[in-house]
Specification:
68 residues, single chain
Length: 68
């Protein structure tokens, strides 16, 4: 795929990760905090678009299924 597509999806997931991170920090909840931090960092290490999207969606829905 095109590198601009990867960059766009990376920005989208990082922006959502920033929201999760700030929510987790404000509510003192570990799962959204860790998922948000992971969403911010992981796009730098992905090389294919499919892996970027799969990992991103998994990290986005993880706080809804994992409750602490």
């Amino acid at each position: 795929m095109d590198s601009s597509t990867m960059m766009l999806w990376g920005v989208v997931f990082s922006g959502l990760g920033l929201g999760y991170f700030s929510y987790g920090k404000k509510q003192k909840s570990l799962v959204p905090l860790c998922c948000g931090l992971s969403l911010i960092i992981y796009p730098y290490f992905m090389t294919s678009l499919s892996s970027l999207l799969i990992v991103g969606v998994i990290l986005l829905v993880a706080p809804y299924f994992i409750k602490f």
